Amino acid sequence: MKTTITIVLLLTGWLSAVGAPIPSLEERIANADVIAVISVTNVTKTIVTNAAGSQVTIFVAEAVVDRTLKGTPPRAVRVKDATTGTMFSADDLYRPADAPLRAHTWALGTRRFLVFLKPSGDAYMLSAPDSLTAVYGSDSSSARIAGAWWPCITLDEAIASVEKRQ
Question: What's the whole-number mean pLDDT along residues 16-35?
Fold first, then answer.
């Protein structure tokens, strides 16, 4: 009986962790100090050891703010992302000087992003998981965004959606 109760409790905990709700756009807007469209100019990679003794890879993107939707960021920002599989780790953004593209990895094909950020020391970090959305195209009326929680819409439609909910 104790084993059954233990298994049920473990499964309940696991399912609640796996089924964690994805923050709504309203929640993302409320939790972000800065919402902006940025153009990444460089990405660096750092491996650090966290308090638990595990190694964590952090990518830091140097970027220029193209358009601000919320907050007052400086013209140039640094955005830290330690998310596993972050878009900042794509070959066309982060690559040591003169290194060839790595085999068996994907290239992002863009340097522009719609981001939801909060301050972190002298830089910014994503305000929630999946708060880094790729922007494909240069003209905002025809540029498309693609993200885990956005439908495939134009950048102008995404900006209007954010501005409407502020």
Answer: 79
**CA neighbor of 79 nearest in space, from 34, 35, 117:** 117
CA gap 149, 65 in Å, rounded: 22
Q: What is the largest CA-CA distance in the chain?
A: 63
State the Cα–Cα distance between residues 155 and 140, nearest whole angstrom: 5
pLDDT tier, 107 (very low <50, low <70, confident <90, very high otherwise): low
The answer to whether residues 21 and 157 touch, using CB atoms and an 8 Å cutoff, is no
- Which of 145, 83, 84, 78 has its CA nearest to residue 110? 145
Say what the pTM is: 0.78
Domains detected in the chain: 22-165 (2.40.50.120)
